[in-house]
Amino acid sequence: MANTLLLLLTAAIIAVGEIECLSPQATALFVFGDLLVDNGNNNFINSVARSNYYPYGVDSERGAAGRFSNGNTFVDYFGAWLGLPAPPAFSDPATTGARIRGGVNYASAAAGILDETGQHYGERYPLSQQVVNFETTLSQLREKMTGANLTDYLSNAVAVLVFGSNDYINNYLLPNIYPASFNFVGLRKFFIAGVGPLGCIPNQLVEWQAPAKRCVDYVNQMVGTFNQGLLSLVDSMNNGTNRGGMFLYGNTCGAMGEMLNNPARYGFSVVDRACYGFRQNQAQMTCMPWSPPCADRNRYVFRDAFHPTQNVHAILAQRAYAGTPSDSHPMNVQQLGVIKFKITT
After folding, report:
1. Hey, which bits of 68-214 come out as E strands?
2. Where are the alpha helices (DSSP H) in 55-145?
3. Is 127 in contact with 182 (CB distance < 8 Å)?
4. For 66-118, how does the pLDDT look when each residue is reduced to its tens digit (9 = 90+)?
5. Distance of alpha carbon 314 from the chain centroid
6. Which member of 20, 76, 84, 298 lies 3.0 to 4.6 Å from 72 by CB, making a disulfide possible if both were Cys?
């Protein structure tokens, strides 16, 4: 499974409240991914995987806008560190004209690297469709920029890819997997997030009946294999064969592991059950519509059975932007922002 996902991803590569942005360090932010970074795309398609209802967004002024969080997500904080507002959802009819100049979010809850992932949730945008949607945005940008300006704009934009979790949680036993090839035309700067420790999320703890204070080693070993291959993939993409581009690997699993092993250091005290949910340890479902929010959300690592709280998102974004090489390899996003690509034709 891990090798198959890596082959497909190889082909694919050919704080609460309002967030203040720094000075822009990139021309735009384009987001490809799953439910961890979906900011409302699924609100506009026929999907069960939505979060546009209370208590999602309870700690955000925007309310339940479609983020699987009690407030902000990784992308909101990541964009603020880059000096850019969070990009709008592609499927929102209002995402046209000047709104797309700062980038677009194509992420879709229940989606994965594999087209089949999450199909039992209804419509979603898998990676292949997200790339097609990106090409739609490119067509719109070509109407507003000359060829040289568009090339320079894309070369200094940042693309974030957050995939893999759903391919394990919702798609591990699929019998038929078909390869695909994707092309992120013009983009040169990529931040590719590794998969977090899925064996530690509340859903998997209950599903596998993990002992108290233990994660599910079997699941985390699979994730480790995938992440190690992803790290090797990033190194291979930076070895000179892809001149004029830079790829970063985000060590999500390592950062999450630190939070789970040393929760008090990060202000957490509850690591093995969700703040919201249903049945044992609130681990069987996402939030039910209009269910009351738990009282002290800041103590929890996990907001529901699958998703982290906004405080976790904030920590992950900070580590990606300004962390050490063990957080973001081979450099962090702040250092990536300094690099200016000039593509000559």
Report:
1. 158-162, 189-193
2. 74-82, 127-142
3. yes
4. 999 999 999 999 999 999 999 999 999 999 999 999 999 999 998 888 888 88
5. 13
6. 76
